[in-house]
Amino acid sequence: MINVVVVEDKHPILRSIVRKIENYSPDLNIAGQFTDGRSALQAIKQLKPHLVFTDIRMPGIDGLKLIAEVKALAPETTFIIISGHEEFDYARQAIQLGVVEYLLKPVTEQSIRDILDKTVPSILMNKQAAEYRIISHAIKRWSSPSQVEYEDLSYESFFVMLICAGSLSKLFIDVANPLHDIWLRTDLKALLSARFPSLQPYWIMDGESMNEAVIVFSSTREQAIDLQAIANYLMEKLSHSNIPATVAISNRVITLSKLKLEYQITRTALRKYLLFGQSSIVFAEDVKWHSPHEPLRKQIYDEQKLVSLFKGRKKKLFFMEIESMLQSWEMSGMTQNAIEDCLYQILYACSKSIVGKPPTDSDLKLELDEVISISNDYPSLLRNTSFLFENVFLQIEHTEPSPKIVKDIMEQVDAYFQRHMSDEISVNDIADRVNLNLSYLSREFKKYKGITPIEYLTQLRIDKAKQLLADESNLKFKDIAPLVGFSNQYYFSRVFKFITGITPTEYKNSRFKITASEYNKSTIE
Hints:
- Residues 411-510 form the HTH araC/xylS-type domain.
- The protein is of the alpha/beta class.
- Helices cover 55% and strands 11% of the residues.
């Protein structure tokens, strides 16, 4: 809904303009109509309309002063001035104040339609952008907001929907995840518009991991929203590409300031109840936070048997047992949470049996997090888990390279990243190139650089992108993306924002301001 205020000192003309605006579209709401500038100014401060039609010559304060004062408080307000031929000089002054449209008297139905056809699309675009900023801030804010920040949103209630494609990643930068670009390849807005064209306004934004998306739906009493139908539809669409998806749906949110809390509760429910390798819906209102624990570990795997096989170096039997265990988990529909817990306990038990090499808890968890993040079904989980345990067998067989050799290899990997950051690189390829197990490479590289290989490569690419954005060559984003190893500018922009917290455009603009400031300072000196 676009709120409109009309200011015209002659009552018949005022009523005529209001009627013509109402005839244009039911989406335009006449929030106020006034015959003098002073009353209009006081009301506009409270009403905060999107669009104001105003005469120029009026009692109290004239239209130009009204425009100037409102623009100082709310520069995004759109003005259309109503003037006669003899007032063209006034109209020219209004244009200098940022008013780009004006109506000549007498105002006809067609002239109203023509001018609204030109102005309404941009008003809607600005309105949607402003609402997106408010909703995004409500979910991702770090400080408590005041209610004033949200008073422009007049929706009755909201729901948060989280969509996780594949497994839930704990890694901030997870470009190794095979579904890291799923929401660049999947146009959620187009999908929803095709199937649910009459939805109330909704806002789509990035989730905490690259394979997550967040949709905030608005709702009214008059038009209930069938969230389960939407979730089923999206899961069905993703299933066509063999992508398991978990959709978590929040409770109703009445107060926008509570949106972040409800988002956090919903994501906790997603993390707790996501079924690995399967599509499912989780409703936050149905979650039993004190529900019975998962089945006892001894009922879903035999730790003693696995450790015995590991100690006896019976690798073939060990991996057969792992495969059988995963098959039983798939049949029973295990949650990702339970799988992570069980695999960690097995990994820890096997690692601590290695004499003289006590396990490092953080290393084990990091390696397991990487395995889970790149596994979206049980076949890939078996393959990646086997790589992980293969590394543990290397330790018991004492076939690890010496510290000096490891250091040399890490330096080779670092140099390769530096030289080939614009190429399509996978950590699997690097592991094969230096003849190391993937999990072993990740662990040793983290010791060497403090971050995982993929995080390091991504940071190199973003640092190079910053240099190119700050350069005076004015390269376009579509040109920068391939230079720093990204397949397209949209994927580049998303990763850039994940790393820096701002978009490439915002970064470039901030650099321009700094450069301009430095130039002005040097000129003054």
